[in-house]
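Tokens as discussed.
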């Protein structure tokens, strides 16, 4: 019988998204390390510390071409069995250091097992918010029940509320009704009521009580961020973030939509995954703030359209193709319990409205936070992700669109790309004369120079989005690649770091001694192309909106989203991601969608403002705009084939020739008469 045992097996690790082939029978701790994922391992693999726990996802995952099963691991034995006898381990968990890979595997690395945890920009930004929440508390003293008064306690309390607070027509959540009489008696007929929009009673507490809390949540396709706020003071008591667990079903939105299309259980699995994640975030935030999740009575939710639909339990299939019809775009007010969210029993959820098939509630939240409709200057807001969401306007008119930038900016489709996590190259400089690089990796403060001695544990694992943008711009500024993105054929004469394989060039950014895999990290021609296509789509979207508004210049640019926080504005402009603008007017605002959700949580009028914004914004459909293609073609060049960038005057190379870089300012000086 021929031996059919495979020599290699396919492994994907979540949430990092790293994947690749490893030898059949490889130890999982080593295999993960080989693929650039460090697991905690205090005992060094002796099966005694329990830090290296992982779980296996069962099923077929077309995105990764993997059929994964826990049966593809070597059986439990020796050290692992005795560890399990002594310590509680969650169901389905295994010790990576005790497992051999005997088949394809989709491995989930829980946060506590990650030695290099994902970097998530999550802090709430300081913003002035008028505190006027939809949920508030009132103290009421009711008349006592007597033999003479045949009315029910609720009706008697209603009369007291009308008298003391001038509120009438309140309803009582049916789940709260059983708590009414005990609360009234224990409080000697004085109670604190928690009201929603002064219309519904969400909670009855005996006597005087304080403490109503809310969660503002931005459900991103990669990360989910929740701010736990005191609804009385507006203070952010805790911020928690997590990777979106749906990543294991597909990295980007469209692959999740196709997962929902191809698998009958797909949409409900995606829904359950995000609800579980939200419950976990709420629990963690409540623990951090020292409150109970029962005290969380309101939630404001923002998310892109696919996340919005999946969260609501709606099949996102219609969003996968033209005309990208939304099931609903209006704001929604729901009960948390109806979605399976474990907050206060009668807690409310406000879901911000969507605008169009590709422009979701997260964009409305960004607009709410940045307020283009409240100012005179022409403001451009760019939220870079797999789809870039772009807003341009001022108080006269606001326009928006979505542009298909693809996942390159998130490190996907890049030869050594990865998400922003410790070890990822995030900053790059290339000496324009020697062509030698310097770079910074996340988690290590120092710039790394060629030949530098690095401490143990500090190694480059890949290049994240901000790193690849800087690398390509630096290659362009150093004359290694031309304005059309092609590697300059003369560049290898200037440095051995530039190599050609046939006609395809690459640049060695990190030497093998400085990488976790001991293989060099390179920037290749296909990486440059992927970034060019992404940035051209982004720029073309911006130009469509500028044409719609009839402007040729913007006054200010805001880079929103976690990624925006890491992009250097100058590099973004030299690459031609954003149009020309005074660089001092280009700012990153972090998670503006999360801030918008927080504003909606803390101010009920902001909810009406968001609904009005969503109704009135002019949405430009890039997919059918004839001009998009023309703009796209012109925008492929670095920074652009024809558009001027006067604010970069003197900073762009005019041409590269045999190693001599002639800058425009120098050329002008050379051309000036003596
Ligand atoms: S590394 Fe310690 S138990 Fe696996």
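Sequence:
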């Amino acid at each position: 019988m021929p031996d059919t045992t495979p020599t290699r097996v396919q492994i994907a690790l979540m949430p990092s998204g790293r994947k690749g082939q490893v030898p059949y029978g490889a130890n999982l701790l080593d295999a993960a390390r080989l693929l650039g994922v460090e697991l905690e391992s205090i005992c060094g693999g002796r099966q005694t510390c329990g830090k290296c726990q992982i779980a296996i996802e069962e099923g077929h995952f077309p995105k990764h071409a993997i059929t994964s099963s826990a049966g593809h691991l070597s059986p439990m034995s020796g050290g692992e069995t005795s560890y399990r006898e002594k310590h509680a381990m969650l169901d389905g968990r295994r010790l990576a250091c005790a497992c051999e890979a005997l088949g394809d595997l989709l491995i989930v690395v829980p946060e506590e097992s990650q030695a290099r945890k994902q970097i998530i920009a999550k802090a709430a930004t300081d913003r002035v918010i008028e505190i006027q929440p939809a949920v508030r508390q009132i103290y009421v003293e009711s008349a006592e029940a007597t033999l003479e008064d045949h009315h029910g306690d609720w009706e008697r309390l209603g009369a007291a509320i009308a008298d003391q607070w001038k509120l009438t027509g309140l309803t009582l959540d049916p789940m709260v009704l059983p708590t009414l009489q005990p609360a009234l008696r224990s409080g000697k007929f004085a109670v604190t009521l928690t009201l929603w929009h002064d219309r519904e009673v969400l909670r009855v507490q005996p006597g005087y009580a304080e403490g109503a809390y809310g969660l503002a949540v931005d459900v991103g396709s990669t990360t989910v961020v929740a701010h736990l706020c005191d609804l009385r003071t507006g203070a952010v008591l805790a911020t928690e973030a997590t990777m979106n667990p749906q990543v294991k079903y597909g990295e980007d939105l469209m692959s999740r939509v196709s997962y929902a299309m191809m698998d009958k259980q797909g949409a409900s699995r995606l829904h359950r995954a995000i609800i579980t994640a939200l419950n976990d975030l709420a629990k963690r935030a409540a623990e951090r703030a020292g409150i109970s999740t029962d005290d969380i009575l309101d939630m404001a939710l923002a998310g892109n359209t696919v996340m919005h639909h999946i969260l609501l339990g709606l099949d996102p299939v219609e969003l996968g193709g033209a005309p990208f019809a939304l099931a609903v775009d209006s704001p929604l007010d729901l009960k948390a319990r109806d979605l399976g969210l474990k907050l206060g029993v009668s807690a409310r959820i406000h879901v911000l409205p969507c605008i169009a098939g590709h422009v979701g509630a997260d964009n409305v939240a960004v607009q709410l936070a940045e307020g283009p409709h409240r100012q005179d200057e022409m403001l451009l807001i760019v939220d870079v992700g797999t789809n870039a969401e772009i807003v341009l306007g001022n108080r006269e008119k606001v326009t928006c669109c979505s542009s298909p930038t693809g996942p390159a900016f998130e490190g996907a489709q890049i030869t050594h790309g990865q998400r922003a996590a410790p070890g990822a190259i995030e900053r790059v400089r290339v000496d324009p004369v020697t062509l030698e690089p310097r770079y910074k990796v996340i988690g290590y403060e120092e710039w790394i120079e060629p030949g530098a001695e690095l401490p143990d544990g500090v190694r480059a694992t890949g290049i994240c989005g901000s790193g690849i943008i800087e690398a390509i711009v630096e290659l362009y500024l150093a004359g290694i690649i031309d304005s059309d993105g092609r590697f300059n054929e003369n560049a290898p004469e200037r440095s051995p770091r530039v190599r050609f394989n046939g006609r395809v060039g690459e640049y060695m950014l990190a030497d093998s001694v400085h990488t976790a895999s001991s293989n060099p990290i390179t920037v290749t021609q296909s990486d440059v192309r992927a970034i060019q296509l992404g940035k051209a789509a982004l720029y073309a979207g911006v130009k469509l909106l500028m044409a719609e508004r009839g402007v040729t210049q913007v006054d200010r640019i805001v880079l929103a989203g976690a990624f925006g926080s890491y992009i250097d504005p100058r590099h973004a402009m030299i690459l031609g991601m954003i149009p020309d603008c005074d660089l001092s007017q280009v700012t990153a605002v972090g998670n503006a969608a999360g801030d918008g959700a927080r504003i909606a949580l803390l101010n009920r009028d902001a909810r009406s403002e968001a609904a009005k914004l969503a109704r009135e914004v002019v949405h430009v459909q890039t997919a059918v705009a004839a001009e998009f293609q023309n703009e796209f073609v012109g925008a492929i060049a670095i920074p652009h084939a024809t558009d001027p960038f006067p604010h970069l005057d003197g900073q762009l190379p005019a041409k590269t020739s045999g190693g001599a870089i002639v800058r425009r300012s120098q050329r002008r000086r050379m051309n000036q008469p003596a």
